[in-house]
């Protein structure tokens, strides 16, 4: 009876894990696809511009007149489309996550500052209720009392 040695067996293959294992939501995946398409269009900008220039002012004759430019543009775009480019776009999206978070925090601070100024301008309380005349009389009374304390302190 012949026993198999460990060297006779082939090592089990490990499946390739994605570079970013975090699952993304649908809107996040759309942002990744937008980055992906923008990168492809940037790499083929000259071919796209040549096709657009040829197609300008044409209707159905564009199909025949601009065939060479269209094929060149499509070839270029297909060259840069693929899973590797999508992975690069996903990595770029994750790299920009910190910047997006900072922008979101900045916008939140601006909104809070705007709300504070609005409340201050209109004389609103912390619940957003208009104080009006009641607040004015309260402030006048406080300033009068503060003035009386100053006068009493000088005697």
Automatic annotation (TrEMBL):
This protein's GO CC annotations: mitochondrial inner membrane
InterPro entries: Cyt_c_biogenesis_Cmc1-like
Stored Pfam families: Cmc1 (PF08583)
Compositionally biased intervals (Pro residues): 12-21
The entry's keywords: Chaperone, Disulfide bond, Membrane, Mitochondrion, Mitochondrion inner membrane
Keyword Membrane appears in the UniProt entry: yes
Domain of life the protein comes from: Eukaryota
Biased composition (Polar residues): 1-11
Record family assignment: Belongs to the CMC family.
Full protein name: COX assembly mitochondrial protein
Origin species: Paraphaeosphaeria minitans
Source taxonomy: Eukaryota, Fungi, Dikarya, Ascomycota, Pezizomycotina
